[in-house]
Amino acid sequence: MKNQHLVRLGSAALAFGIITTTVAGSLLVVTAPASATAPTDSSAMTLTWEEAQASLGGGQAPGTGTPDPDAETFSGMTFRVSQTEELTDQGITVSWSGAKTTSPSEYATDYVQIMQCWGDDPAGPSPQQCVWGAPSAAVSSRTGVGAAKRDLVRGDDPVQDTTLVGEQADPDLMLEPPAENPFLKAYRMPFRAVDGTLAKTSTELSKQFDANTSNEVTAGRTAGDGTGQVVFETQSGLEAPQLGCGQEVAGTSTPRSCWLVVVPRGSHNLDGSTADSTAAGRVTGSPLSASAWRNRVVFPLGFQSVAQSCPIGNAEERLVGSETATEAVTAWQPALCGLGTTYGFSQIGDGEAANQIVSEVDGSSRLALVTSPLAKAVAAEHTIRYAPVAQSAVVVAFTIDYRLYPDAPAKVRDGLQALDLTLDARLVAKLLTQSYQADVPGRGSGNTTLQGNAASLVTDPEFLALNPTFVGSKSDTAPAGLMVALGNADANGRVWSWLRSDPVAAAFLDGRPDEWGMRINPAYRSLALATDTSVDSFPKADLTIAKGGDPDETGYGTLDMRPYMNDMHEGAYRTLKADPNEKSSWNPFGQPKGYTSLGAQVPGSRFVLTITDAASAARYGLPTAKLVNGAGEAVAPTPESVAAGVATMRASTVPGVVVADPADRTPGAYPLSMLSYAAVNVCAATPEERRAYAGFIGYAAGKGQVQGERQGELPAGYVPLPAAMTTQAETVAADLVDTRAVAAACPEAAPSAPGTGETPEAEAPPASAPEDQSLPVGTTDTGSTSTGPVSAPEVPAVQEPSSNDVDQAAAADGPDHRTTDQPLAATRMGLAAALGAGVPALGIGPFLIRRGRRLAMLAAAHV
User: Fold this and answer.
1) Which of 59, 254, 431, 610 might form a disulfide with 571, Cβ 3.0–4.6 angstroms?
2) Helical pair 687-701 and 723-736, crossing angle rounded to 10 deg
3) DSSP character for 785?
C-alpha cells in the first residue's frame, strides 16, 4: 500500500505546484511595477510624392497643364522624417524609397535636395524663405550648373521666365548689374529672413548663412535598391536666427514652427529636356526655380521654445558634473524652473567635479554628477550621499558612406549611408594608438612596424571579418581616425578598462601582434596602456612630422591631422557634419602660408568615427557601432543592453554605489554602460542648498525618467532607472530635507534656524558620526540612524512642459542586478512565497509518482 500512498501524494503535490505557480506567476506579472520605458508618441511622418502633389494640385508642370516629365519616376517615391515635433538643434533622419538610382560617382541625375525653411502660410514656405545656395565647393562641383545655387537663368525654366521679364516680372529677382557691365541682366531667388530682411547679393546672403553654417543637403544619393537616407541638421532660432524656428511669434507665447522641404531631381532639366542634352550630362537649374519647386515634398517642423524658460526672480543653484549627464540635465532644466529654483549646470571633468563639492571655496557647488564614487582621500571627513539619476553609455558613433567597387559582394549598397558597424576591443585599441598607416602623418613612412601594418581600418582583415559589407571598399576609403575628446574623464577610463579586460586587445596593447602580424604603434609602447589602470585620457603619442612637396612647408603633426574635440558633444556634431577638422592640406596662397582644413567630407565619400556619449549620438541622429562584449557577442547600445550592462556592475567600496566590472561576461550586456549619480556633500551644504538638491534629485529620479522628446523628459540615449535605483534616489532626496537624518549625518552641525526650509522633526537621539562618512542615508549599515521609510520631500508643484501624465514607476531589476532591491508590497511578497512553494512541488510531485510506481513494479516482480 506504500506505493499507492506515494503515487497519491505525488499527484497532489504536482497539482498543487501547477495551480500555485500558474496563479501566483500570473498575478506577479499583473502586479509587477509599471515600466518607465513605455513607448512615447512618435512624431515621425511619412509622405508619398503623390500625396504631396495632391496637396499642391496635381503633378503637372505649373501653368502648362502637361505632366511633369519626371512625374512617373517620382510617383513611386515615399519619404519619411524621423521626428517632426519638439525639435531643437539636433539631427533627424530623412529617408526615402522607391526612387531611381543616382548616377555613379557624381550627382548628375536622380537625387534629392533638402532644405529648412520658415513660413507662416499653412500651405508651406515659398522659395524665398528657404536656406539654400551655400554648398561646399566639393559637392557643388559634382552637380549640374546652378543645381546647388539660388541663381535663376532666363530660358532655363519657361515657367519661371514669366517672373523674370514682362509685365509680371518680380523686381526682387533681378540682380543689380555691375558697373563694368550695366546692361547685364542676371536673376537670383532672394532670401527673405524671418525679420523681413531681403538678401539678394552674395554679400547680403553671406551675412544670413554660408557654407559653414548652412544645413542644406545639396544632394542625397539613392542606392541601387531605390532607397536613400541622410541625417539632416535642424537648426533652431539660436543657430539660425534668420529662420527663427522656436522663437516666440509676436503677440503670442507660441514657438514658431518651420518646414523641411525635399525636392527630388530626376533626369530632366527645368525646360523638360533630358540631362544628357547638356555638355556634362547633368540636370541643371536651381531647385528653387518654379518647375523643380513644383515637385517638392513638405514636412512641418515643430520646435521647442528657445525663449527664456525660468522666470526672473527664481533662486539660483549651481550644479557641476560630467558630460554623460549633460543632455539629461539640459532637458530637465526648463521643467525644474517650476520648483522655484533655476538650476545652472557647468560641465566639468569628473575629478574637478569631485574636488569642487569638498572644496572650501565659497560658491562651490555641493552637488556633482559623477559616474564613480569620490576617492577616499577626497571624501575623507565629508559625508557624501549618492543618488542614481541617469543610465547611459559611451558609444562609437559614425557617419560612413559605402564606396564599393562594382564587383564588391555588397555592391548594391554603394553610395548608401552605412547603418551597421561592429567593432571589437582590439580594433578600437588599434585606432586609439594610431597603429594604422593612415592615422600617422606621412602614413608612417620610415617606421618599419607601421609599414607592416594594415593601411587603414577598411583593409584590416579583422575589421572585414566583422563587417563583410565593407569587402571591396575602394582603396581611398579610410576614416579620419577616431575622434576623441580632450581631457581626463571617467568615461575615457571606462573605455580603457574595457580594452584591458579583453585578452586579445590587452595583448595588442602590450606589444604582441595580431593574427595578421599587425603591431601597436611603437610610440605607445612606453605608456603601459595594457596595465596602467589610471589612464583616463586619450593620448596622442606619435610625434611624427610630415611634409609635402612644397619647400616652404613647415610640416604637420598628429594634432593637425587628428585634432582633439573639445568634448564628446563636439565629436558627435562633427560626425554629423562629417568634418573632423583635419588640417593637413598645405595652402601656399594663405597669409601666412599654412595648413588648412578641406572642410566637410563629400556626401557619398564620408568616413568619420568618434567616441561620444549615447545621448549626444542620439541627439544628432548618428548610428552607433555594436561592440563585442566579454561574452563574445556584438551588442548594440539599446535600452535593454545598456540596462543589462548597468545590472552587471558590482558594489564599490562605498555602500549604495556600483561600478563597472571589467571582468563580467554576461550575455546581452553592453560593455560601456554608464551610471550617473548625484553626489551631495550633505554637511557642507546649507539648508537652502539641501532643499534645492532634494528638488533636483526628486525630479530627476521621478518625472525626469519618463522618456520623450519634450522639455522635462528623459532624452533619447538614456535608459530610465529601475525601481530600486528610483527608490534609492528618492530616499536620498527625502533625507536631505529631514532634520533628523541631517543631524545624524552631521552631528557637529548647528541646529537649523526657523524658516530655513528643513522639515521639522522630533529631536534626533544623540549619535556619533558614522564610521563610513560615505554611507547613503537610509541604509541599514552600522551608523545609519534612519528609523524607517521616509516620505519624499515636499517641493512646489512643477509646471509641466506638457500634459503628459508622468509614470514614475520603473521596471524591476533583472536577476543579476547588484544594487539595493526595492521592497515588495505585502501582496507581492505573499505571491512570491506561494511561487516559491509551488516550484519545488513541481519537482517533488513527479518524483513521488515515479517512486510509487517503481515500488509497485518491484512488488509485482516478487509475487
Assistant:
1) 610
2) 160
3) -
